[in-house]
UniProtKB/TrEMBL annotation:
Protein source organism: Coemansia brasiliensis
Catalysed transformations (reactions): ATP + H2O = ADP + phosphate + H(+); Couples ATP hydrolysis with the unwinding of duplex DNA by translocating in the 3'-5' direction
UniProt name for this protein: DNA 3'-5' helicase
Residues noted as binding ATP in the record, renumbered to the chain: A147, G148, A149, G150, S151, G152, K153, T154
Segments forming domain UvrD-like helicase C-terminal: 537-868
Bias kind Low complexity: ranges: 35-46
Domain UvrD-like helicase ATP-binding intervals: 126-536
UniProt keyword list: ATP-binding, Helicase, Hydrolase, Isomerase, Nucleotide-binding
Gene3D superfamilies, per the entry: P-loop containing nucleotide triphosphate hydrolases, PCRA, domain 4
Amino acid sequence: MPVRQANRRGRGRGRGILPKQSVKQESPSLSGRGTSAELSSATELSSDIESEANSKYICTRSSNGVQQLTLDSYTVSFTNKRDEIDSKPACTGFASARTALTNRQSEDVKMKIDPGNTSVEQPVIRLDAAQERISKLDFKRPLLIVAGAGSGKTATLCARVIEMMKSGVQPKGILVITFTNKAADELKQRIIRYMQASGLLKSEDMKDKGMVNNLMPSASTFHSWCYGIIMRFYRQLGMRKCPLVAAAESEHKRLMVLAKEQLEDCRRLVQCEQMLNIAPTKAAADDGGEQSIYIHHTEARWNEVLRLARETTGFSIESVDLDQDQNQQQRGKKTKFAEKAQTASQQVSLMRALYEHLYAVKGRVMGLVDLVENPIDFGSSFAGKDLVQGMLGFMYRAKAKGYKPQELPQIERSVLEAYNGMLRRFDLVDFDDILDMTNELLNDRSILEEIRGQFPYLLVDEFQDFNRQQTQLVLKLQEGVGQVTAVGDLKQSIFEFRGATCEENYHIFLEKFVDAQVEGKALGSMESLTTNYRSHKSIVDLSNILALETVDEGDAQLRRLLTPSQAVPDAPVVPVTVWNTSSMHDEAKTIGLRIKAILDRSTCKASDIAVISRCLNFGSYRPTGLIETELLRRGIPFVVRGGKSALKSKRMQIFMALIRLIANPDDDLAAEYCLDELVMGVGPAAARKIKNQGINQLARQSLFEKMAQASTNTSLLNKSARAGLQAFLADIALWQQRQIGHVPLSDLINDIFTKYVAHVEDDNDDKSKSQQASDGDDQGEDAVLDMAKAILDSLFEAPELLPPNVDPNVSRNGPCTMELLQVYSSHLCLLSTAAEDQGKLKKPKDKSGQKGRYEGAVVITTVHQAKGLEWEHVFLNHFIEYMFPMGFRGVSKADEARALMNPQIAKQNQQARALHYREESRLGYVAITRAKTGLYISVLEQYPVFWMEKVFGEPCKPSRFLPNIMYSAESSSKNKRRRY
């Protein structure tokens, strides 16, 4: 490793990382970076073997350019060659290893032909030795199964269920809990196949679904199971009827709007009582308390205010007009509590009118503050442009972590209590309420014993993703019983933002079950599944190195869970590729070329490839936007999961609407979008007038024709609106009549972009993408314009998509025809729709009737969305500090608010930085272990956009999760400077 590169990176190591004292001297450092002097001494070794100072890494270089990194027993083959393409099909090598694996007993259910009856296929359970041994361990003792990535944990869990039933345990006495509905369905299907293989389910039983359900154990998510408990015992919770579940965010937002109005209503109630000299009763004084603005059960108090207001001031309900509020409610999204919400809004409006009347009559004379003109100051707890959205985010975080309103300061407590009050008012519960209410029910000893008697055996999957409420349910069901099996992997816990408390979960389970004696029984046990059947040795060992950072070095109890994984010995090894690229444009081009090469030279499908990013939106910047453009340019289909595709950005939608309208003036959807977003001087009221023209006429008119008529109608629109319409229609006419047939399509795209798209702010209202592009690279082009041209390039590269009479070689630089523009418009719409399709994109057939070159679609996703999935080839982009891992942004608003009430919590928040980077390391572990065959890591040499350099400082540092010795020492930019 050259001294210059080593020195540069050695100095920047300390920014934003775990405290130095938390890592012991003898422990191998994840990144292996040291001081300048130490790194300089490393260069004195031979050219074939290099050792990075202050670490145990050894790097061996072979003649073909493939290098090997060694740390103790871990060996990672890697290369820095971007242009290296596998000489043989990339997927067939590992496929042969999987075939050999099946012969050795794989983790899944395989099918074999019964020699006695060749027409019948019988399922067979195949487990390796460790899986089979663990599945048969004592069912009456606690068991913790540590299952690494790709180790067959689901097969082991299902096999343990089968062994329980074979030993005489009643199926309905077994409760299997997992994290998602999809995982629960997969568990059920796997258990059914295993029951068939074990003879517990006959072929004639499969014809009767009721019989199958009776013979199967209970398998569901925690929320589904807990809701079933609430349905049985809701009266014990003091509820008049079984609550419905408010699952949609739109419902939560509507409830929060009503909760905010209710808080204002509570303040006005107190002041109304003061104006009418109503002394608060003891119940009223205790109702909300001094710590909360929210008041429970305000109906009786408002009725008393209303009665006295009628008697003393002559207030009349009939004088209040509620039609406006009704119309506003009807225009809103319909919810399962729509009618009740409308009634609640009317009541708030009535109480506000009552308050305004009393304040005008008495409050102003008494010198009171006008609460309508001085609403609640919510401070910084719900910062953001959208106050209600900020409240929602706060509520989600607080309830997911199990925080009680009493643990929060006044404003935060009031918001949480008001939101919960709205839920109860409409007989609703959210997902966190389901867990809280079930925990409350199980505090009743009689209910707990009934549930324990019904489900004496408990098996939980994905234990690392449980939150405090779920872990408490496990404790209540099994503490003192010990017939529980938990399966999970601490290294894959990545849902802390949803309230998961993995480290706390494992501490509790180890203390209460594994290391504790339960009522005279033997101690529980901890077992590990260590064979990774998914990936080859280089990927597995790189994940083992990264796993060293997933647990605090000083936490001896949890360090027991870091059992290293091992690959299948006969799996062929494909070197991990690590690229350093000069810019985001270089990175996107490299990834696009490599994906195209893999698809062209192997039997791999597009759906076998994934680009995994830490996030899909980083402030105003899209880390995968240019990669999407490169895939479009090469005609490679893709889908975006876990975020929005750049094709769905506001600026791209404006461009698409203009193209559609020019190609087809009768496209009313495109015309409406242009009218609402682009025409100067036309507001919502004027737009409605234009759309409603000729509404009673029999002859149908397109919206574009109505716009043309309205542009000269002086009685319909004012001068400003007419001028804006005329200018817009003139531009459309120019592109339709004068440029079609005279200029190339690429020039038309440039004109449209310059006129209407270049200066439009995108969805997040940050500066335009053109400015961002120039900040990111001196050769940068606007991302939307670049994508539009890439789509045009892909159209000319795929003749099967063009009309039969269109020659791509002539049309590329020749005058644009209306037919070509229409094909381009259709292609834009197809790609925009398909980019977020959760299924596989179906490419049109070519002229010979065969399918397109690339089957399926490349997946562009976040790490969180990729959890539990696998692909043959995985690309990790932007593998740099502050993006992977994300920089620590401080504790959440919910944690900050709680810390104000408890000094002990404040001390815990000081440790949040270390917790953050441990979770980020687990995200890195999950990302790496998604790959079966090819793993490609891209490291940027400069930050993508200018503001990152100003915020994070220079130079741009590779991720701490990448061992320093794997990073290519040769800069691809050669002292290239960014121009400002």
